[in-house]
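Ticket #4471: structure output looks truncated?

Reporter: J.K.
Steps to reproduce: submitted the chain below (280 residues) through the standard prediction queue, then opened the result file.
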Amino acid sequence: MNWFDALIMGIVQGLSEYLPISSSGHLEIFRSILGIDLEGAEALELVVALHVATVLSTIVVLWKEFLPLCTSFLTLKRDNNTLYVLKILVSCIPIAIVGLCFKDQIDNLFGGSLTLVGVCLIFTALLLAFAYYFRGRKPSPAYTASNAAPLLPREHSITFRDAFIIGCAQALAAMPGLSRSGSTIATGLLLGDRRSEIAQFSFFMVIIPILGQALLDAYHIIDGSSAANSIGLVPLLVGFIAAFVVGCIACKWMIELVKRGKLIWFAVYCAIMGIVCIVW
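Returned output as attached by the reporter:
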């Protein structure tokens, strides 16, 4: 892999990690387009670099919210911040089970198949469209003032039950093409969680699984259980920086889009890309 390929992959990861279009699916798509064939340590190095970059972009963009959460949890304060962290931990239970027990089976079953990526992208499109028409649109003043408004329950803060259900959606999104952010945000909207909270929660809840997987992959690289080949320092740095910078922009953009209830265009995009993958 050269630095230009790494740049493209970094941009794709930074955008698709936050936008509801599936980062794993789009990385697979662009790997096929660019003709990139990575195996062993090379593939693990790229995955670690890109995912750590997007985690770092989440922390940088949301640092004002992130630092109080860490402070309260580490000092064992009994406040809302500690409860929030506990909800994040609850949401990580399903993906931890899937990652520990079924990761290899999922990789073997879905890895490298653009047809399955296309099917999952279409499923993502259906999920986003359903969430949009059921709860995702921001009510107009006329709708709010009408008798139709009480038909839907009021938006509420994320509960422990909601956190676990959203976590189950994240676990299902282990399949490439099924968007993690799209699945978790759409599930939160369907549960009636506040739009102002669900995007931020979705981005925070992925930090622990990504860092955990990155540490595991780094261990495999260091202990030599993967191939000895290396992707090279320059491509790694280029991919890392690209994913970080683009991730910061996409993170801010996605939070505003969820607040405004404008997810339907991503459903259209995922449907089109899904069809293209299947035809390809």
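Triage note (M.O.): checked the attachment and the full token line is present. The CA atoms of residues 40 and 227 lie 5 Å apart.
Status: closed, working as intended.
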